[in-house]
Structures are given as C-alpha cells and as structure tokens.
Amino acid sequence: MILTEIDHIAIAVHNLESAISYYKDAFGAEVHHREIVESDGVEEALIKVADSYIQLTSATTEDSPIAKFLNKRGEGLHHVGYRVDNCEEALAEMIKAGATPIDAAPRPGSRGTTVAFVHPKGSFGTLIELVQE
Question: Taking the model in full, what pTM does it have?
C-alpha cells in the first residue's frame, strides 16, 4: 500500500477570509498553516483535523487552476491529497496502473512538501494530489 493516510481535502472558495470565518464559527477551527503558492496561483489556509487537514484554497490569479475551477463549477470539493512516503514512486505506480499525470514529475508543494497531481479522468472523477512530507 503506497498511501499512508489522507493528507488533506481541498475545498475551493471564492473568499478565503469568509471560509476561514465560517470554519471558526461552525467548528471552532483555527488555521494551522497559511501560505500563498505563487506557482499554482493559490492561497491556502490549512485547518488541522487529527493528522490531516482541510485545505481552504482560493485563487490569487485569474488564470490559476482554482480560478478556472471556481468559474466552471463554483465553490466546493476540489481534490483529495493522499500522503505517500515517496512521491516519485507513487506517481510511477499510478501511471503504471493507468492514471493520467498532470505533473510529469513531482515538484515542490506547500509546507515544504513534494507533490504531484493526477488527472480526474483516470481516477474515477477525482483530482488526486500525492503528498510527500
């Protein structure tokens, strides 16, 4: 088994501050980590839930993948991040099993992680992010 746990569930939102306030009011949640990922055109706020996160994410540029998602589908579940011990090996195994990679090779992610995305068309409609800490 190459998956070690759920790293995060990503939720695309139009207004990050409103989403953070909602999670604070509704669940008493506090932001554990916040970061702008320039290369992806997103700002994220991570809310820790046990050993995983809820990742609230909004666009910082109009042409980012999150902006395109929000314009096409509106707010909601964007992707699931699965934690793996070795992102490169996990990506290779997924490709071998028929997955379609978005990232040809793992790359730097937020929190100092290494990540790779896999297209939803080859993963039963779910955008997958492999995350190596």
Answer: 0.94
